[in-house]
Amino acid sequence: MSDRWETERPLLSVVLPAYNEAGNVGPMAERLAEILAPIGSYEIVFVDDCSKDATLATLRRLAADDPHVRYVSFTRNFGHQSALRAGLRHARGDGVVLMDCDFEHPPELIPEMIAAWRGGAKIAAGQRESSPEISFRKRFTSNLYYRVLDAIGDVRIEPGSADFLLLDRQVVDILNGFDDHDVFLRGLVRWLGFPLVKVPYHQGVRSEGQSSYTLRRMIDLAISGIIAHSVRPLRIAIHLALIFAFIGLLLLVYSVVSFLWIGHTVAGWTSTMSAIAILGAGQFLVLGIIGEYVGRVLRETRKWPSFLIAETEADTPAAHPETLPSSLAARRHANEP
Ligand code: UDP
Ligand code: MG
């Protein structure tokens, strides 16, 4: 690791998924250029998740003007996690930073992440400090979620973790080898087991546009995270079965006692109805959970790609090809997919 820093300047890639971020990609590219200029050897890789606004047009322009800027653009909206994976595949750096492009992940943190990387860390993870900017609901649900995942899953994710990471090339290559459909990146990265250095940051404020993570998408991601890292929910069927067997036993005792000693056996409509309702709900719940897993098994066996690329910066002629830094020009061929 240290040798590499002494003999050559490693290339750093910064990967930014962008969905309807026309107002953000330009200022973000500019800010990153300022921060990364001292490093010299860097590339900025935007992943346009089939935005409905002028994001792609802006990226084409940025890439034509600045050889450091590259992009991939999806055929349709495949979601944030898929965009991150496409970025990881497209990035050529010896280290790859993953971050949002709405300024919520402050680009100013990158030098600190690089310092951790230089110190030997294979993974430097941005750790969001709690701040009044983040709503109580978001903090509460995210803490609760990570606690549940910790209890039942095979990874431990600290509250405040985000997809704001610097990954060494070794980690990137391993991640690129995974071809699962439903990846929960911040879980997978921790599951790999490489030592991880936390770099605390205060979440910035989204500068343009609005969050595309609706409640439904958040729930989808939360379910993906649990299912990717735990099969324990399937066991809920056994727990429910035990609980219902116990209730059933009590009802049986009650019926026998009523029949033999109390003598009113006709009444019982209420208890029958409650038993049906409870059992019905329990069965639907279990079926739903099994369905989630079965659906994913189907998706994995079909081996459909997680994303499809419509266009990359290679389709955009560079405005000034002669300005391409030589280190980048060499890598352009060495690492092209
Ligand atoms: N994003 C994406 N595809 C989507 C939704 C979001 O690539 O379908 C990007 C978005 O442009 C941003 C990042 O993922 O860079 C995080 O999204 P957002 O800010 O909407 O989520 P939040 O920060 O509210 O969790
Ligand atoms: Mg955001």
Overview of this structure, please?
Helix 2 packs parallel to helix 3 and helix 10 packs antiparallel against helix 11. The chain contains 12 helices and 8 strands. Strand 2, helix 3 and strand 3 form a beta-alpha-beta unit. The chain has 2 domains: 250 residues, Alpha-Beta Complex (Spore Coat Polysaccharide Biosynthesis Protein SpsA, Chain A); 71 residues. The protein has 337 residues and is an alpha/beta fold. The longest helix is centred in the C-terminal third of the chain and has 34 residues. The protein binds uridine-5'-diphosphate (UDP) and magnesium ion (MG). The site of uridine-5'-diphosphate has 16 residues, from strand 1 and helix 4.
Bound ligand species = uridine-5'-diphosphate, magnesium ion
Mean pLDDT: 86
CATH class annotation of the largest domain: Alpha Beta
User: Considering the protein shown, what is the CATH homologous superfamily of the largest domain?
Assistant: Spore Coat Polysaccharide Biosynthesis Protein SpsA, Chain A
User: How many helical stretches?
Assistant: 12
- The count of β-strands is 8
The rough form would be described as elongated
* Structural class based on helices, strands and sheet pairing: alpha/beta
Tell me the fraction of residues in β-strands, as a range: 5-15%
The CATH architecture of the largest domain can be given as: Alpha-Beta Complex
CATH topology of the largest domain: Spore Coat Polysaccharide Biosynthesis Protein SpsA, Chain A
Query: How is the largest sheet built, in terms of strand order?
Result: 7-5-6-4-1-2-3-8
Radius of gyration: 26 Å
Largest sheet: 8 strands, mixed
Q: Could you tell me how far the N terminus lies from the C terminus, measured between alpha carbons in angstroms?
A: 25 Å
The tally of structural domains comes to 2
Sequence stretches where pLDDT stays below 50 over 5 or more residues: 321-337
Helix content: 40-55%
Order of SSEs: HEHEHEHEHEHEHHEHHHEH
